[in-house]
Amino acid sequence: MTMDFDFDLLVELTEACGVPGYEDDVRAIVQREFADAVDEVRTDAMGNVIGTIHGDSEYSVAIAAHMDEIGFMVRHVTDDGFVQLDPLGGFDARVLRAQRVTIHTDDGDLTGVIGSVPPHTLTEEQQSKKDEVKNVYVDIGRDGDAVSELVSVGDLATLEQTTVEMGDCVTGKALDDRVCLFSMLEAAKRIEDPAVTIHFAATVQEEVGLRGATALGVDIDPDLAIALDVTVANDVPIIGSEADAVTKLGEGTAIKLKDSSVITSPKVHKRLKTVAEDEQINYQLEVLPAGGTDTAGFQNTHGAKPVGAISIPTRYLHTVTETANCDDIAATIDLLSAFLATETGTHDYML
Question: Which residues bind Zn(2+) 2 (predicted)?
């Protein structure tokens, strides 16, 4: 299919490595892309990047998407040279079997594999043992002495995967949340002479507790905040129930009503709906039973704020095969751009 956006930039963002607290490679891309799109770029002590377009009024809007991906930190190297990991972010350990990983050391990257032994060689007790990250061992193909010289406690590790087109979709690692970070960057490039000041925030450490956004809620102190994140698209046969799908691929961007961290401001999500309908942008409503986003980080950290959220429906979250529909990505960029272009600072979002 024909991409209505910069696919090469999306690939660069998703294939970059940046676990919570160590988003350096992603931050460099964001800074580069902001350079010609905004009036001012700054980075704070946590590593959040804020690109500001100054508007005609003091009213300010914060747009946030997080840079970090789930990953690991090395916690131990065995005498035999196997590497044990501590998770950075929420992992379903079942998806780690037989995965390839990259261990990021001071002297360069190393390829490793999380092995999976043949099931017929396991005892019944071993077969019934619950998968846990603490029981994962990474094999980097070297003996113990070599590994101890190459790998140190505190080194980082990420799952290895490329991003590719797949039919009407894109699939790869770290679409959570790089596909939304990408959408924010694309929207920033479209904004000219806004009526309000817009702070585009690429946040850190969302996967370990919305930490970057919470700090920015104080530092930026916006009048309105909109966060972008992926959301569950469980529209697959194993789920069965349409109610449990949350969203569906190909049916448009998602306007969040709630998740377990936030109930979005009714007047904000109603205006998002109005803009989508006026601009004929396909959308669906999101009621997410579990999970949180940067939206919550802005809602009440420096006094009560009106907040909203736009989500990109994504299958297979927190795996290396995260999958989003290209039309939904384009719709997200369109909705965010149209919302900001029509934000005057005079809309009443108070209850």
Answer: 176, 207, 318
Which residues are known binding-site members for Zn(2+)? 66, 176, 207, 229, 318
Identify the pLDDT of residue 126: 67
Distance CA 123, CA 125 (A): 5
Residue whose tokens read 């905004």: 38
Cβ–Cβ under 8 Å, residues 48 and 201: yes
- How many CB atoms are located within 10 Å of the residue 180 CB? 29
Q: Is residue 166 part of a domain?
A: no
Residue 270 domain boundaries: 7-69+173-341
SS3 34: helix
Residue 349 lies in a domain: no
Q: What is the reported pLDDT for 127?
A: 67
pLDDT band at 321 (very low <50, low <70, confident <90, very high): very high
pLDDT class for 93, splitting at 50, 70, 90? confident
Q: How far apart are CA 10 and CA 6, in angstroms?
A: 7
List the catalytic residues.
Answer: 206
